[in-house]
């Protein structure tokens, strides 16, 4: 556009124009082109550019009709500003106002240019600011940033199109070069493609071109065939850039890029390695079918080998890849195991502190921990302790994953494990967390770890686990996912370890008894009730708990549960007998009613050691049920029923009531049971019932008892000494009849045979629960079914007043078959592991043989 | 999963783990030399698996215990493995005594074993 140069130095800033700059603004002549651009000298030029004239400029947003309005308003605004905010006294003459306007117009273009194209301004040029109120920006100032952004966008668009065009034209040529035989050519071509792929437009051009697959195939081939570092870097860099887009991923996958990338994982060059792993990671995340391809190409083994490097971000990507590959795929988990994966992963957990890496590693371990082959390997590598290190971490997702993994592993970790103190202590502390998931997991892990493991039980007691668990249970209210494992843990800790008695007292002292008895009421479901009954039974082992338990009404509740379970069994067996088919156990919520019956009667048995409790039990008219239970086929139930009757019979009233219910007949039957405990209890009850009978009755009874208990083919357990309590024996030895039985006198020996394996012990330790398949928060219970157990011969002692001994169980391994000559040397047989012989019964229940 | 719910006598196909166990010579309590394997088996078609404490689900021969540092442990046998075959004898349909006999017969055992969680998910 033509222009006429006006005089240099346009009039600026005179008068009452507020300005922060000196009156004189130099206008160097180098600014000619800007003047031209402003349209100075144009007809109609009023001193600014596009606003008024509407001439085409490079400031589209401020052009056009609206400009006039803007002008007006801004001018008006300026006027207002001028008038109002700065407290200028009004009273400009019209001339002065016009003068000011003119000056404003002249500087407007400069201001706008300064706002939109700051890079075109000279240094040092100052433009008078029109801002009158420093807190309120002018319109131009407000529009400065948006217009700059717009400018950049337009520039980008123009460049983009250029790049895309260039790339599209270049691709066929590049493909040809990549396929060239000369390695140098290939190398340069690869580098060029890499450069192209860095920019977005050309990248899209590459991916969307019809020859994309060819291009990528060429790259992959270059990767596989070349030894040249530059080629490799260029090719893999390109693939990396392409892998950020869906089409790129698809193209890479289809061109067989994955095997080539997996091969690169052995590269010693770090940048190549990083590109390769990141590309594989993107493929695994977003491309269907990549997982299988990576597995087939042997990617798993290589990735596990890479775990030995020490760049934390790199490791985070590798572990994430492993997690994606292993999730839900058994074979992958086994491959990781075979490549020593667990050991490396545990080492990572121990050595690093980068949160993302710890989190991804814990996820891999979580995925592996549901595989039963990986579990022992992880535990042996010290996985539990390593996970314990991070239980106090700030990152919630890390803590949660560690807990889930621990829970999955905890059923494999019960056997061994010194050094779990940190873990147990950490778990006890986590019970106080505010997150429900955390509490649930911690309780579940504690329950598993304390199962059948004396050391863990003692440790947890010592770190205040009992109090913490009781508090947790109180706060949990009705939430069974928390209360059930917590109650199981308490149940484990209140029996069969050094601090059991302390634990039994501690539960009471922490105020646990009321809540425990309350939980026996609805809406608690059967698994929880079963656990509670076991706990009550253990608590009742401590005499100081008898009165508090009674006051809470636990006896009444136990009897209610017993009646309900018993009726259920009756109903089911009557249905079965009328119909056909095998009577399965009556299950409710996965719990057999027989277990409930056995548990409740067992708890009542222990509670009945105390005389007030006995009175309550008598008053509840439950003795008939006990007598009925004597007819039950399950030996455990017979035993506990006979046991509770034995306790009740120690009072005269009790003995009378029992006899009135016609217990004599079933008890006499039970004398012949092959289960020693049953037989012994039955004998004891009969004996007590006979206290005030005539003498000859007593004598006949003695004979009967002697015969039945000491008969030839009765299985005697390790040749133990007198099965009779001292007082019973004395009666047999009537003063005028020297008793010439095959037994001598001597202290009855008490054996505790632990090799019952995973039998249903009296301590009511359930089996550790199965690990959570699918990594979900699942249910906890998985106790063993009750099996036929036979107690040890601890009966010898103190049968007079209470069965003080914890009764162990030795189940399916049948006892040593002594035949007719009874060996009376208990010391020989104490703890001897003689191979069990098959019993002579034709009906072999189930036994195993040592080989 | 039908590997572990197998009806003895019916056809079954499954993956298995091959285990080769070399027995060790030890002296028993009477001084005689015996070949010890170091594991216990339970089960058999004459047994009632429902009474097993480990809750087995069929009449197969199961490993109920593996002693530490025994030849069985070293060979890779694990507790609760189900032995499908031993030196060519089919242990999925035999009595307990017969299984014991087969196992005691040879000093080296070539067994095929099924393991939950490994040979099937």
Automatic annotation (TrEMBL), chain A:
Biased composition (Polar residues): 50-61
Ranges of compositional bias, category Low complexity: 735-748
Name of the featured protein: Armadillo segment polarity protein
Membrane-topology annotation of the record: Peripheral membrane protein
Highest taxon of source: Eukaryota
Intracellular or extracellular location(s): Cell membrane; Cytoplasm
GO MF entries: alpha-catenin binding; cadherin binding; nuclear receptor binding; protein phosphatase binding; transcription coactivator activity
ARM repeat residue intervals: 169-209, 214-257, 256-298, 298-340, 340-383, 422-464, 464-506, 511-554, 621-663
Family the entry assigns: Belongs to the beta-catenin family.
Keywords tagged on the record: Cell adhesion, Cytoplasm, Repeat, Wnt signaling pathway
Transferase in keyword set: no
Predominant cellular place of this UniProt entry's protein: membrane
Example of a GO biological process term: canonical Wnt signaling pathway
Record Pfam families: Arm
Entries under PANTHER family matching the protein: ARMADILLO SEGMENT POLARITY PROTEIN
Residue numbers spanned by region Disordered: 1-21, 46-70, 727-762, 808-842
InterPro entries from the UniProt entry: ARM-like (IPR011989), ARM-type_fold (IPR016024), Armadillo (IPR000225), Beta-catenin (IPR013284)
GO terms under cellular component: adherens junction; catenin complex; cytoplasm; nucleus
Keyword Repeat: yes
Gene behind this protein: ARM
TrEMBL record, chain B:
Stored Pfam families: PDZ (PF00595)
GO CC annotation: membrane
Source species, domain of life: Eukaryota
Main location as per UniProt: membrane
Matches recorded under InterPro entries: PDZ, PDZ_sf, Synaptic_Scaffolding_LAP-MAGUK, Tax1-binding_p3
CDD domains: PDZ_TAX1BP3-like
Places the protein is found: Membrane
Domain PDZ: 18-105
Keywords annotated in UniProt: Membrane
Name by which UniProt lists this protein: PDZ domain-containing protein
Organism: Daphnia pulex
């Amino acid at each position: 556009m033509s222009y006429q140069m006006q005089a240099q130095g346009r009039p600026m800033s005179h008068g009452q124009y507020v300005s922060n700059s000196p009156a004189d603004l130099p206008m160097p002549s180098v600014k000619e082109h800007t003047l031209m651009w402003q349209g100075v000298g144009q007809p109609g030029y009023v001193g600014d550019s596009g606003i008024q004239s509407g001439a085409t400029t490079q400031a589209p947003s401020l052009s056009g009709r609206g400009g006039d309005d803007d002008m007006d308003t801004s001018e008006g605004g300026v006027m207002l500003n001028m008038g109002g905010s700065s407290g200028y006294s009004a009273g400009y003459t019209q001339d002065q106002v016009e003068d000011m306007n003119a000056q404003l117009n002249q500087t407007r273009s400069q201001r706008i240019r300064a706002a939109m194209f700051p890079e075109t301004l000279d240094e040092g040029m100052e433009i008078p600011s029109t801002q009158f109120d420093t807190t309120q920006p002018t319109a131009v100032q407000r529009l400065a940033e948006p217009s700059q952004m717009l400018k950049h966008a337009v520039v980008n668009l123009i460049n983009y199109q250029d790049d895309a065009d260039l790339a599209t034209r270049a691709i066929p040529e590049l493909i040809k070069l990549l396929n060239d035989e000369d390695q140098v050519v290939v190398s340069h071509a690869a580098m060029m493609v890499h450069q192209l792929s860095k920019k977005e437009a050309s990248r899209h051009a590459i991916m969307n071109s019809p020859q994309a697959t060819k291009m990528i195939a060429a790259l992959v081939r270059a990767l596989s065939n070349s030894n040249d570092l530059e080629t490799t870097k260029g090719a893999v860099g390109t693939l990396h850039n392409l892998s950020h887009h869906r089409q790129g991923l698809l193209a890479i996958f289809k061109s067989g890029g994955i095997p080539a990338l997996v091969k690169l994982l052995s590269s010693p060059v770090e940048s190549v390695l990083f590109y390769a792993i990141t590309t594989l990671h993107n493929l695994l995340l977003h491309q269907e079918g990549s997982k299988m391809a990576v597995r087939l190409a042997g990617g798993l083994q290589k990735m596990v080998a890479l775990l030995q490097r020490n760049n934390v971000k790199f490791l985070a990507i590798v572990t994430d890849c492993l997690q994606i590959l292993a999730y839900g795929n058994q074979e992958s988990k086994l491959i990781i195991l075979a490549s020593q994966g667990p050991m490396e992963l545990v080492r990572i957990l121990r050595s690093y502190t980068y949160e993302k890496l710890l989190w991804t590693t814990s996820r891999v371990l979580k995925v592996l921990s549901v595989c039963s082959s990986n579990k022992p390997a992880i535990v042996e590598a010290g996985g539990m302790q390593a996970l314990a290190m991070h239980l106090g971490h700030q990152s919630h997702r890390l803590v949660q994953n560690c807990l889930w993994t621990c829970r999955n592993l905890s059923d494999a970790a019960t056997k061994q494990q010194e050094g779990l103190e940190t873990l147990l202590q950490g778990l006890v502390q986590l019970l106080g967390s505010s997150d429900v998931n955390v509490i649930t997991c911690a309780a579940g892990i504690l329950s598993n770890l304390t199962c059948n493991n004396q050391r863990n039980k003692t440790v947890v007691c010592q770190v205040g686990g009992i109090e913490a668990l009781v508090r947790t249970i109180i706060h949990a209210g009705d939430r069974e996912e928390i209360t059930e494992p917590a109650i199981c843990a308490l149940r484990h800790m209140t029996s069969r370890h050094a601090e059991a008695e302390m634990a039994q007292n501690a539960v009471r002292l922490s105020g646990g008894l009321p809540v425990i008895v309350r939980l026996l009421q609805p809406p608690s479901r059967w698994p929880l009730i079963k656990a509670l009954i076991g706990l009550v039974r253990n608590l009742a082992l401590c005499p100081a708990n008898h009165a508090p338990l009674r006051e809470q009404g636990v006896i009444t509740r136990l009897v209610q549960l017993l009646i309900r379970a018993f009726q259920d069994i009756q109903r089911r067996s009557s249905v079965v007998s009328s119909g056909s088919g095998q009577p399965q156990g009556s299950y409710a919520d996965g719990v057999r009613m027989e277990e409930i019956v056995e548990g409740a009667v067992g708890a009542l048995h222990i509670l009945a050691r105390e005389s007030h409790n006995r009175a309550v039990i008598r008053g509840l008219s439950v003795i008939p049920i006990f007598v009925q239970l004597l007819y039950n086929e399950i030996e455990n139930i017979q035993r506990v029923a006979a046991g509770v009757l034995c306790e009740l019979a120690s009072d005269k009233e009790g003995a009378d009531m029992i006899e009135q219910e016609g217990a004599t007949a079933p008890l006499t039957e039970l004398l012949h049971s092959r289960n020693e405990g049953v037989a012994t209890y039955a004998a004891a009850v009969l004996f007590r019932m006979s206290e005030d009978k005539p003498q000859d009755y007593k004598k006949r009874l003695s004979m009967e008892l002697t015969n039945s208990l000491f008969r030839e083919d009765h299985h005697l357990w390790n040749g133990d000494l007198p099965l009779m309590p001292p007082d019973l024996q004395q009666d047999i030895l009537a003063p005028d009849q020297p008793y010439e039985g095959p037994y001598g006198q001597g202290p009855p020996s008490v054996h505790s045979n632990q090799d019952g394996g995973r039998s249903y012990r009296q301590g009511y330790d359930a089996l550790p629960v199965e690990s959570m398949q699918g990594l979900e928060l699942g249910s906890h219970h998985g106790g063993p079914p009750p099996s036929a157990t036979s107690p040890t011969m601890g009966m010898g002692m103190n049968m007079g007043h209470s069965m003080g001994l914890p009764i162990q169980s030795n189940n399916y391994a049948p006892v040593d078959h002594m035949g007719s000559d009874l060996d009376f040397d208990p010391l020989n047989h104490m703890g001897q592991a003689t191979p069990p012989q098959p019993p002579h019964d034709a009906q072999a229940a189930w036994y195993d043989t040592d080989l | 999963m039908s590997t572990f719910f197998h009806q003895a006598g019916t056809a079954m196909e499954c993956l298995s783990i091959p285990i080769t166990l070399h027995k060790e010579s030890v002296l028993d309590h009477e001084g005689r030399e015996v070949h010890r394997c170091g594991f216990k088996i339970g089960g058999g078609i004459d047994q009632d698996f429902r009474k097993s404490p480990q809750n087995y689900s069929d009449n197969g021969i199961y490993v109920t215990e593996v002693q530490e540092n025994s030849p069985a442990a070293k060979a890779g046998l694990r507790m609760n493995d189900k032995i499908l075959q031993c030196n060519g004898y089919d242990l999925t349909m035999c009595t307990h005594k017969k299984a014991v006999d087969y196992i005691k017969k040879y000093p080296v055992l070539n067994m095929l074993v099924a393991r939950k969680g490994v040979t099937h998910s």
